Amino acid sequence: MKVMKFGGTSVGSPQRMKEVTQIFNPAEGEQSFVVLSAMSGTTNTLVEISDYLYKNNPEGASTVINQLEQKYLAHVDELYSTQAYRDKTIEFLHEKFQYIRSFTKYAPTFSSAEEKIILAQGEILSTTMVTNYLLEQGRKVLLLSALDIVRTDENGEPDFNYIREATVKKLREHADYDIYITQGFICRNSQGEVDNLQRGGSDYTACLIGAALQTDEIQIWTDIDGMHNNDPRIVDHTEPVRQLYFEEAAELAYFGAKILHPTCIQPAKFAGVPVRLLNTMDPTAPGTIINNEIQRGTIKAVAAKDNITCIQIQSSRMLLAYGFLRKVFEIFEQYKTSIDMICTSEVGVSVTIDNRAHLSDIVNELKKYGTVEVDDGMCIVCVVGDLASGNVGFETRACMAVKKIPVRMISYGGSNYNISFLVKAEDKKRTLQALSETLFKG
Ligand code: ADP
Ligand code: ASP
Ligand code: MG
Question: What domains can you pick out in the chain, each with its CATH number?
């Protein structure tokens, strides 16, 4: 069995929905497990509806809900050819939008629990519409609710054992289907409430299910022909990378390559299931395969992570003192804030974080141990490839590329696959461009 995930653009219109069903049509005697995102733009619109409700503006929310409902209703005629399935889907859409509308009465006390329910509706809409289309075509298709098979634990991390047991059980109970469809992104938390795996989380759902089922391959179908060697939204003439080692893909995803959810590679890596990135607009293009092979001596790609804050703590007391770093790290742990980059010297340490929620508390605590300086509006640019220290000259090439850019921090040697530069957000574009020119041209 293959697990195949289709992103928002891939199911972004009735035409696209029909096309993807051709892609995931299993061969005779085989089965497909399909994970779908919401139609493109829908989750953003659901966020907008929630924003109105947070601001206690039910009228604003209702206007956007009505517009979204009209947009969905307009797809029905094109997607279905029989009146029975048109009626069935219209009834479903009316019911779902009535449900979304019901939250407008909670506007004065609207909270994140209600927001998560609203955000979950996008994937519920897309999966039901595609399932109805396949049923109309006479296919043996089963819609499984992700709310029954995907759960997070008390730390908000996917509860892998639960996901594996629940998914295997469902498939065993309903073995006689050609196609299983479920929603990406959405899940329940340890309290049983509707939750999600963060924006872009459908990739994560697919990798968790692929790892749970130990499938041959996890396919992530999107709107581009694989992982490019630099961010195609920012740099011209980027090229697809044909193969990535699991660690390389994980670093690129974590450090900003939007094509993959930041942590989705981990479960695939642990289960040893290869991940293939493919293009729904060009289904025969080879895409990118992510597996356990290391290609020696190659720099693969560059990515950038925005909204980074750098905190520097300087203290003469650090000189020759043991336990200083522990005290610093404990403060970040206390405020559940993870550190991305770290550089140390005899008299100071600089770290970066991307979550500013507890910044002022963290800075106040750190001030007990030294002088603290905060720089925000920074960006981590990460170069990924076989960057083991034995490969003489590779880090020099990366450093040469940024010779004209003021670099605030450099991190190298933390793993064999990455060298990271911390630069100001305003220097991001020219840093990415300079790296492409030096590392990938010719
Ligand atoms: P989906 O909705 O299918 O999940 P996303 O928008 O999340 O699609 O991811 C695909 C997009 O990621 C591409 O259209 C591209 O603009 C962007 N992207 C950013 N960095 C990269 C990269 N290094 N390689 C490929 N695509 C990238
Ligand atoms: N629909 C969700 C989002 O827009 C999840 C996803 O597309 O992966 O973030
Ligand atoms: Mg995505």
Answer: 2-222 (3.40.1160.10), 300-439 (3.30.2130.10)
